[in-house]
Specification:
The protein is α/β, with parallel strands linked by helices. Helices cover 42% and strands 16% of the residues. The two termini are 17 Å apart. The structure holds ligand 9MR.
Length: 356
């Protein structure tokens, strides 16, 4: 049993009525005792790890508890919806910046970084854009303008962009979308190049779900990224969304092997949208199972030099896409609906403190 698993097990016992604390402060090196490791962001700093959450539209403005926990615990945020095409360019040539501007300003005021999500997807498109009547040339012009305007506005302020979201099918082939059908597979090259032109310092990611372990889909993602890199396309990272059920996470050995092969291409890996759903109402056993999955993913990330970010898709169980999308499931995040840290939070914090 590894130390981390041991710790998780002790915490589980604690939750279930035991009395043994898993205090890992004694495992820290002397120089680390000067770090504020009482929060995720403090403990993550020693590893150079970006730890963050997705922020639902306006929550940092309208919910003071949300803002307080976010600023205290995390060093990076991502807009859950605010920067998607439907929100940013609701009418052709009409850009709606207010919410995104305020989120970026909030991050800067708390010394946090920002991930941008997402420049291109087949969902959350404004209806004017999502039309099969556009010609190939028109679609290219629409995309170029959208990407250069959005990335250009936040040049130097958004550290990493999810440039392309979910372009690969379960069988590893490219998804049939407006972009593939209207432009052809070369749309992928164009969008990364335009984003890079607009902000040469931003890290550019391909982001997808269900491609964390090994299989047809992750092979498809790997082959796509390898081919893009071979063609000199500026892609710097791969986002692994990690929306998983506590009872069926990806096999950790597969996850590690997959991360290693992507890192060998020179790519960074961010776990971009993690949530670990359990049957609701949550039971102690469900919360323990969930905590172990969070901790296993964190440990795998910390063990892989290429893994440089871990973000959950929401801060608290009060605001999460999970219950409305997976009937009977929820309670998927690190904080409960009353903003209290859950067991998963504690084992994550311990994992950050314990790791070399
Ligand atoms: O959580 C997001 C939800 O509020 C939106 O209605 C939905 C459509 O825009 O997108 C959800 O976020 C998705 C993310 O952008 C991409 N990966 C899957 C996420 C969950 O569906």
């Amino acid at each position: 049993m590894t130390h981390s698993r041991l710790c998780s097990t002790i915490l589980a016992a604690m939750l279930l009525g035991g009395s043994v604390a898993c205090d890992s402060a004694d495992t820290l090196d002397d120089e680390d005792t000067t770090q504020d490791d009482s929060t995720l962001r403090g403990a993550a700093a020693r590893h150079g790890l970006a730890m963050g959450v997705a922020v639902g539209t306006g929550l940092q403005r309208t919910d003071s508890r949300f803002a307080e926990v976010l600023g205290r615990e995390f060093n990076i945020l991502v807009a859950e919806n605010t920067m998607k095409p439907a929100a940013i360019q609701p009418a052709q040539g009409v850009f709606s910046w207010d919410e995104a501007d305020q989120l970026v300003a909030f991050a800067e005021s708390r010394d946090m970084k920002v991930r941008g999500h997402t420049l291109l997807w087949h969902e959350s498109l404004p209806s004017w854009m999502n039309s099969p009547t556009w010609s190939r040339e028109q679609l290219l012009a629409i995309l170029e303008n959208h990407i250069k305007t959005l990335v250009g506005r936040y040049k130097g302020r958004v550290a990493a962009w999810d440039v392309v979201n979910e372009a690969v099918e379960w069988n590893g082939t490219l998804r049939e979308t407006l972009w593939l059908n209207g432009i052809g597979p070369e749309y992928l090259e164009w969008v990364f190049r335009w984003a890079h032109e607009a902000d040469p310092d931003a890290l550019l990611f391909y982001n997808d779900y269900g491609a964390e372990g090994l299989g047809q889909k992750s092979d498809g993602v790997y082959n796509l990224l390898r081919d893009l890199l071979d063609a000199g396309v500026p892609v710097h990272g791969v986002g692994m969304q990690m929306h998983v059920a506590a009872a069926s996470p990806p096999r950790m050995s597969d996850f590690k092997t997959n991360m290693a092969r992507l890192a060998n291409l020179g790519l960074q890996i961010h776990i971009t949208e993690m949530d670990v759903r359990i049957p609701i109402p949550a039971t102690d056993a469900g919360l323990v199972q969930q905590a172990v999955v969070y901790r296993d993913v964190l440990d795998a990330c910390l063990a892989e030099d290429g893994c440089t970010g871990l973000l959950t898709w929401g801060l608290t169980d009060r605001h999460s896409w999970v219950p409305s999308s997976f009937e009977g499931y929820g309670s998927a995040l690190l904080f409960d609906a009353e903003y209290q840290p859950k067991l998963a939070y504690q084992v994550m914090l311990d994992g950050l403190r314990e790791a070399d």
